[in-house]
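Batch queue: ligand-bound targets. Current item pairs a single chain with nicotinamide-adenine-dinucleotide. No template structures supplied; prediction is de novo from sequence plus SMILES. Inputs echoed for audit trail.
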Amino acid sequence: MKGPIQYIESFEFKEAIERIESDTLLVVIDEKVLELHSDKLHLDLVDKDVIFYRVTGGEDLKTFSELQKCLEFFLEKGVHRKSHLIAIGGGTVSDFAGLVASMLLRGISWSVIPTTLLGMVDAAIGGKVGINSKKGKNLIGDFYPPENIFTCLEFLSTLSLSEIQSGRGEILKYCLLDRATYNAVMGNRSLKDLIRTCADFKLKIVEHDIREMGARKILNLGHTFGHSFEVLQKLPHGIAVVLGIHLILRLFDQKEMEETLVALIDKLELVTPLDLYDKGLTPDQVFELVLKDKKRLPGDKIELISVRNIAYHVIEEISVQDLKLKFGNIWQNL
Ligand SMILES: NC(=O)c1ccc[n+]([C@@H]2O[C@H](COP(=O)([O-])OP(=O)(O)OC[C@H]3O[C@@H](n4cnc5c(N)ncnc54)[C@H](O)[C@@H]3O)[C@@H](O)[C@H]2O)c1
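Prediction returned. Tokens below.
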């Protein structure tokens, strides 16, 4: 893992960005963020050539056609290998722009300025970059860590309630995996403290396992089923993850942990996420996307992360057939 996270106060990015060793900055920025915060960002004032590329944040950005458009745009501008890309936006923008950085001239350095809560605690950290396929989410990509993560909490002031809830959903995931985060939430610590605690935990995990061969797998808690709900129900990522975690606890009969989950939902002021299951979906519809998840193993098995207590995770290997049966049995009673 490259450089640590730098926390920036009041949009004072100029000095940190001046220190980047490149004379050309390729800024991939969410147009909504530009509109809301251009008067404070002042990136055009840094003493470097700055080329802006505006994108519309959201899953529609993470496609081949958008990727091609962006790569061709920068190549047309005559960028060189010492150019440095900066992604400014939420998780969709950092996933997308990080992949652009990894491919442009076979890889240029890059940094992230996360502007959503989910980006600050999760997506901007760890270098998983990618786009979606028709076959499923995040199936095309790379491990390509950013050189810098510049986090400025003031961006959060313009975030919608639903996006704040999404970020809190990912914080809930960390609570189950990490005692320090759990204690911080239960101890009513400030959002600033929570962001730092989650980000430090993720950095610590990915530092030793950038390519997700071991420890990093636990960060996928809730994601296998979560991705299905995210796609089928168009739910914000972090909220879909909460449903995915709930389902896993139910599948592996972790009643006490389900109670803990409900207490955390309450503490994090998440608005009734467990009422969001769309029972109009058939188990087959949900399961079809589960099978396309990256956690599928050879021999028709699937790997699922579960938790038995706070900071006590288990990696469950289960046959696809058994999982389908178990899931079919619990779906109607969720
Ligand atoms: N790479 C990883 O490790 C990782 C981890 C978790 C999630 N992700 C990915 O992250 C994505 C979700 O990220 P997200 O929740 O940040 O979504 P997002 O990037 O779609 O942003 C959500 C919405 O908020 C808007 N927005 C962004 N910043 C804003 C601001 N400061 N004020 C007002 N509006 C703002 C965006 O325009 C968008 O409409 C998913 O694609 C998911 O797969 C990646």
